[in-house]
Amino acid sequence: MIRASTNLSKIMAGEQRKRNIVIIGGGIIGSTTAYFLSHHENFNKETDTITLLEATKIAGGASGKAGGLLALWAYPSCIVPLSYKLHQELSEKHGGAERWGYRAVHCGQVDMYGILAKKNNQSATKGHSVSLEKRSQKAIGLLRAAGVPKDLDWIAAEGLQNYEEMGTPLTTAQVHPYQFTTSMAQLAEEKGVKILYGSATSIAQNSGAVTSVSYTPKGSSDEEKTLPADTIILTAGPWTKTLWPQAPISALRAHSVTIRPSKPVSAYCLFTSIDLPHPSNPRKSTTVTPEIYARPNNEVYACGEGDHLIPLPTTSDLVQCDQAKCDEIVAQVGAISEELKNGDVTAKQACYLPNVEGRGGGPLVGQTSVGGLLLGAGHTCWGIQNGPGTGKILSELVWGGKIESAMVESLDPRRWGL
Ligand SMILES: Cc1cc2nc3c(=O)[nH]c(=O)nc-3n(C[C@H](O)[C@H](O)[C@H](O)COP(=O)(O)OP(=O)(O)OC[C@H]3O[C@@H](n4cnc5c(N)ncnc54)[C@H](O)[C@@H]3O)c2cc1C
């Protein structure tokens, strides 16, 4: 069981009545934290203040541009089951199926040859467009022979090398991350959380405990303001280090696209490995591994690999999106699916993943050695999955002084010397 610092314990014991809680960063972690703090029975909106301080816009970073896959087989296992269950409960309570596209899905790993040509008749591979007639008996037979489920009929049978199931609708689900995150923030606001737009610049301490946050209001570059705080929860994703340099959180840029497929596609999330022949030398090939997630409302999301070419900019609205990288993803997924090849690209985007440097995979969640300073950061590629669990345990720590819903000692920031 993880206990809060002495400072926080005093607050719990009632020695300090009015609570001033500031959450820094309105991605999924800050927004779910705001949700669970404001839905906790100990929150009294007449006496307590919870402020969610966001530099640009809610879900403006990775939390609005991620894939949205949820899985019981994700990691770390100490928080995954709690968070997966909370996603189900939140969806039931607030109409998540309609509001943020929550649904159970199939998930598989598919190894393919990229055999389809680009839309404008230029070759993505060998220079020849291959008509798949994929609902023909032959194509269906090829898919079945490789163990592809019957309703996964939107990948090119002739390019198939191997299919392996990774998850079923009992173990795998999805949300639309932008819709989910903004809904969490809105539901928190309805319960009394104040959403403030401004960039936190520093955290002040006195006698080893936090006292306030300084910030620059959005749209004004010179006027700095201060928010008094007895509790500060740092949920600034890949920007965490800019406010707390010792936090071992690094940033990795990743591009993604959304496509409206030419025909509706069934509910599958696919991890791929696609062999694409070299444009001028068919004997050479490159292997690419985009992830492809069918979503409700006739949308398919696809993301590519990360890069360190451009350092993290100061705010999420300054992230540079390289159109060529997005076009590569479109070509890669179009090389294995007629529906995607003939679909319309509806978004090209980039964002930064918060990774944990050094030992352990993260995330870092809980009390730090500074009184009243809590951390919820470094969620790597499973922050959407683990967002509600993180918000829940942080709310327990703040309001009750201890974490009760999960055994998450391994995520304690103090283990990293923080
Ligand atoms: C391409 C891609 C696909 C992904 N797919 C999945 C997936 O399918 N499933 C899954 O579980 N996870 C996925 N992830 C991971 C997930 O997106 C992240 O782990 C998660 O979004 C991190 O959330 P966060 O709130 O920590 O950070 P962010 O979303 O980056 O939010 C941080 C917020 O803090 C704000 N901020 C920063 N500095 C300040 C400051 N000084 N003052 C005030 N506010 C500040 C920012 O503006 C931002 O809004 C994916 C990630 C990527 C990149």
Automatic annotation (TrEMBL):
Record-level GO BP terms: retrograde transport, endosome to Golgi
Keyword DNA repair tagged: no
Protein origin, superkingdom: Eukaryota
UniProtKB keywords: Membrane, Transmembrane, Transmembrane helix
Transmembrane regions: 21-38
Signal peptide: none
Keyword Transmembrane helix: yes
Pfam families: DAO
Gene Ontology CC: cytosol; late endosome
Domain FAD dependent oxidoreductase: 21-397
Protein name (database record): FAD dependent oxidoreductase
